[in-house]
């Protein structure tokens, strides 16, 4: 198995080559692949909180909305004042502006994660889930009432800056950062907090600090995913980041296996493609989709791609 930095480099090269496929990609296929990449970013980042740290957050779509709206605001309102009309700028300038917009959205989402995490991550289980759920709804209502950002009608005419190479590259970086963080000496504190918070505190760790760090890092990548989503769809509305969207991301993590990075990635791919496969029977699509999820939860409660460890012989 290649080392993480080698795997990252290979992923970036593959993303560039795949996005520049001769003859281009079918627009429908491009839409599906972009959705897969964005969902991988969201699922892997949430897995850091729900899987590796043992918390249960239901507000990931709220952080995604912060990144989507504020990165779009940078592209629509700030960038034209600094570099002029983006459509007339060179590709390097457009790329730099887009990167700045994504990073701004990510940092604003991380700040929101810090503001939510500091008072709430001393809670556990259902109480934390309720707090994060409330945060997501509060953010949605706030954006719904900010007229400069479109209010209830949403934000339109966002520059079409997102490409497949951007999405796949950010997804590769997300997986790389989360993997390196968890496998580091510091990251072992996440696993200790998940396994036994009281024991972790007894040996001198600060479980609340580890939970806050995981929450902030996950919020940052959710914000970046929101920026990619906004600059791909070109129109965003507050209803696009509601409770249902958060549940979809949580299902990806649970279905893939909590704390199983490869499983979460495969689940993100599966749950993005499955609704498209069922599209020919549109009137029954959501019924079958929901039924399949129920069956998977009943038959594979540990996760579709999570397998129990083998017991040693003898």
Task: Outline the structure in words.
The chain has helices spanning 4-19, 27-52, 60-83, 91-120, 125-144, 164-183, 188-195, 197-202, 207-233, 243-256, 261-277, 282-299. It has one domain (4-20, 28-299): ABC transporter involved in vitamin B12 uptake, BtuC (Orthogonal Bundle), CATH 1.10.3470. Helix 6 runs antiparallel to helix 9 (207-233). The protein has 314 residues and is mainly alpha-helical. The model is unreliable at 309-314 (pLDDT under 50). The radius of gyration is 20 Å and the shape is globular.
Short account of what is shown:
The chain has twelve helices and no strands. By secondary structure, the chain is mostly helical. It has one domain: Orthogonal Bundle (ABC transporter involved in vitamin B12 uptake, BtuC).
The biggest beta sheet is recorded as: none
Number of strands: 0
Structural class: mainly alpha
Rg measurement, Å: 20 Å
Please report the distance between the alpha carbons of the first and last residues. Answer: 29 Å
Q: What share of residues are in beta strands?
A: under 5%
- Broad shape: globular
